[in-house]
Amino acid sequence: MTIIQLEYLLAVANCGSFSQAAEHCFVTQPSLSMQVKALEEELEVILLDRSKKPVVPTEAGEAVLERVRETLRAFNCIREAVSELKGETAGRLRLGVIPTIAPYLMHRFMPAFVRSYPRVELEISEMKTADIVEALKRDRLDAALVAGGTCGEGIQEHELFNDRFFLYVSPENPLYERQNVRIEDIDLKDLVILSPGNCMRDQIIELCQAKRALPSNFSFESGSLETLMRIVDCTPSLTIIPEMAIEFIPADRRDRVKMLAKGATSRKIAVAVRRTYVKSSIIKALTETIVSCAGKRS
């Protein structure tokens, strides 16, 4: 039994395909398949049900994979521990970012992080919160940038900063003439929000104390705040946006951004990791870089 065999087995379980796993591991499919088969022969048990599409672990495979994840985490910690003893920040960081953060924050910290920590291999995926939580628990991600309080049990969140909510209002909407809007003054029939699966949608519904059955014609599977703002631009509607999105609004449309009255909520931006996570030096470097760069707004 080798570390390579364990890595290949986990890759197939995560990808659901031998071909995709081989591509992920940068090896040929026959080579990967041979190593997984050798592991099964050594353990004298079938670990993967190859008749299913996607390929899924057998009952024995699930039991083995639970230990494989623990073993690989411990194995990868060796390099991290040695790097920390040397005072280095090095290793691979697989980072997930939710769609309502990625377009507005990545450009702030990535250049500085890559420049300051050239020995960290940064892999970034844009994912919804539920997918991030699953990926963290199944060791497909090391960390994620999320809205605080959305990941649930088993995930640890390190808060970075607050991101206030603002109103983006059509010139055809009665609230356009105001500079400061109370939540209770918003007509929910005019409010367009993100599609289900976006945690910001749930935050906005809670903020407005609205029923969850909002008009479905204003729900977009793209989960794009930019799409919502374009809808507002061409209809007498309004939406709620995070502060970090404001700098990307063209100057001739900034008048559509309205303050929400004092007492209106904000979201907390956080780094999420598993409670058993150990790459402390990389996470520390990431959080410090984000906090340092996040305040440099245009």
What does this structure look like?
The protein contains nine helices and twelve strands. It has helices at 3-15, 18-25, 29-43, 59-85, 102-116, 129-137, 199-208, 225-234, 280-294; strands at 48-49, 56-57, 91-97, 120-126, 143-147, 155-169, 180-181, 193-194, 219-220, 238-242, 257-260, 266-274. It has two domains: 1-88, Winged helix-like DNA-binding domain superfamily/Winged helix DNA-binding domain (Arc Repressor Mutant, subunit A, Orthogonal Bundle), CATH 1.10.10; 98-298, D-Maltodextrin-Binding Protein, domain 2, CATH 3.40.190.290. The longest helix has 27 residues, at 59-85. With 298 residues, it is an alpha/beta fold. The strands form three sheets. Strands 3, 4, 5, 6, 7, 10, 11 and 12 form an eight-stranded mixed beta sheet that branches. The chain has a two-stranded antiparallel sheet with strand order 1-2. Residues 215-221 have low confidence and may be disordered. The chain starts with a helix and ends with a helix.
